[in-house]
User: Fold CR-type domain-containing protein from marine sediment metagenome.
Amino acid sequence: GGFGDLFDLIEQAFGGGFPDWFTADRPSHGADLQYELTIALADVVTGTDTDLEITRQTECQRCEGTGAEPGTRPETCRACGGTGNVTEYRRTILGVMTTRRPCPECGGAGTVVRTPCSECSGTGVVEATQAVHIHVPPGINDGQGIVIPGQGDMPAGGGIPGDLHVRVRVQPHEVLHRRDQSLVMQLDVSFTQAALGDRVTVPTIEGEAEITIPPGTQTNDTVHLRGQGLPPLRGGARGDQIVILRVVTPTDLDDEQRRLLLELAARRGETIDPGDADKSLFDRLRDAFGS
Ligand SMILES: [Zn+2]
Ligand SMILES: [Zn+2]
Assistant:
C-alpha cells in the first residue's frame, strides 16, 4: 500500500539503511492478497455487491495473536533485552564503528515464546476462509482493481494486515461491445428495410428496445439509443447505445423476385444488364427458344 511506498522512498533517502529511531517501532506488514472477480456487463450499469470467499492469515483466537499458549506469556528476550536489536562494535582505522542488526535470538521481535500456542504453533496467526464484502461501483472497467485495506494476511507475530486486491473482469456481452461509455452493436438490415424504413426490436443491456430504421438507410448509418450505454466511473449521465446498420444484399433471389427487381430498375430508369451468369435456368431456356 501507500505506506510501503513511503518506507521505500525513505529507505532510498537514507542510502538503504534505516536509522535506529525509524526502525524501532516500525510494525511488520502482512502480505497483500490478489483475487479476481468476474461480473456481467449489465453489472457495470448498476454496480454490484458481492461476497468473496477469501482465505487469509488471521489472528489466532486461541492465543489472541501472541503465539503463547493461553496461561503463558511471551517473555522478554534475554539476548537483546527486549529491544529486538543487537549492537556490534568494531575497531577500525577511523575509530569504533557500531552496527545494529536484528536480534538472532528473537528475530527482532524483542520477545520469545517459551510455550507455543497449540493452535498456531507460536506464529500467532492461523489460516481462515471468510466472506469479504466487495462493492463494485457502476462504470468499472475490465481489469480495474479494487483495494480493500486490511483484508490481506495478518503477519506472524502481529502487526498491520496487508490489503486485499480484487481485479474485476467484465464478461463480454454476446451482442453489445463496450466503447468507453457507449455500447455498440451491429445490425444487419435487408435492402428493402433499408430502402423503405422499418421498426425493429434490438437487445439492450437491460432488455430490449424498438428502434426506427429510417427510409434510405445506408451501410454504417447509426441509430442512437440515448442513455442506454454505460455510466462513467465518477458518476454522471450514461452513454448511448449505438446501433450500426449494415445493409445486406440478397443472394438468394428466385425468378419472380428477380423479375420484380428488373421491373423496379426499369421504372427507376436504370438500364441493367445482369449478364448470362446471373440469369436463371428459366431465363436461359426462354432465350434459347426465343419465346
Ligand atoms: Zn495461537
Ligand atoms: Zn532478542
Q: What stands out?
A: Confidence is low (pLDDT under 50) at residues 6-24. Residues 256 and 262 are 10 Å apart (CA to CA).
